[in-house]
What we know:
Elements: E1 9-11, E2 14-16, E3 27-32, H1 52-62, H2 69-85, E4 87-93, H3 110-118, H4 122-125, H5 179-187, H6 189-197, H7 211-225, H8 237-251, H9 264-279
Parallel strand pairs: 3-4
Antiparallel strand pairs: 1-2
Helix pairs in contact: 5-6, 7-8, 8-9
Amino acid sequence: xxxxxxxxxxxxxxxxxxxxxxxxxxxxxxxxxxxxxxxxxxxxxxxxxxxxxxxxxxxxxxxxxxxxxxxxxxxxxxxxxxxxxxxxxxxxxxxxxxxxxxxxxxxxxxxxxxxxxxxxxxxxxxxxxxxxxxxxxxxxxxxxxxxxxxxxxxxxxxxxxxxxxxxxxxxxxxxxxxxxxxxxxxxxxxxxxxxxxxxxxxxxxxxxxxxxxxxxxxxxxxxxxxxxxxxxxxxxxxxxxxxxxxxxxxxxxxxxxxxxxxxxxxxxxxxxxxxxxxxx
Length: 280
C-alpha cells in the first residue's frame, strides 16, 4: 500500500504549510513565523555512520551518494526557494528575539542569503516591531504604585485584633504560649507572628528526635500531667504518661512523625524517661 499523501491545511483564504512541506498552491502573501536559530531551513545533524568527507570519498570511488548534511541542506534550501516562489505579492518574515527561556535568538542564517539576493545587508531588512507603536500594541507604561502609607510616629500599628488568639484548640479556646514562643516574641515579633500563622521558613531535613523535639514533647506532657491543683497520684503516672504522649503528638504537627511505627522504640524510651521525671 502506498503511503497516504499529507492533507493540505487550508482554512478559508489561508493556506498553512510547515517549512518542510512544498507549497501546493500559490499565495498572495507569505507570513513566515519563527525565522530564527536553525530554522528555515531546519537540517538534521551529521549522519550516524559517515562524516561529510567520507561521503564525498564514497561518491567519488563508488559512485554512490549516501545522504549527508550537505545534501540535506541543499534540498531544504531548494524547498525554501519553492515556497518563496509561490508568493505573488510579498513576504513577511517574523524573527523572534528570545526563546521561551528568555535566551536571545539570532535570525536564521537564510536571512543573509535573502539579503544577498536583494543586494543589501541582513541588518537593513530587520525592523523591530517595538519601534512602530502602530504595530507594537504592548508598548504601555505601568503606572507607578501609590505612595505607601507612613508609619505612626511611635511605629505602633493597631491591627484591631488579638494576635495571641490565632492558634486555637479544638474546643475553641486559645492555645497557651510556650516559653520558646514567648522568647521569640521578645526577640522578633515578626518571627513570632509568622510562627503563629504557620508560615515561617521550614528547611527540609530528615525527622529527628533532637533536643528541640524532646523539649517540646516534655513540656506538653508535663503540662498535661500536672494541671493546676493538687498533684496527681504517682502510681497512675505509668498509665497517664503514654496517653499524654499520644495526645501531644496528635496535637502538634511538628511531633506527628513520632506516631509512625518506625518510631515505636523511641516513644518507649521517651515514655520511660518522662515517667521517671513525673514520679520524682
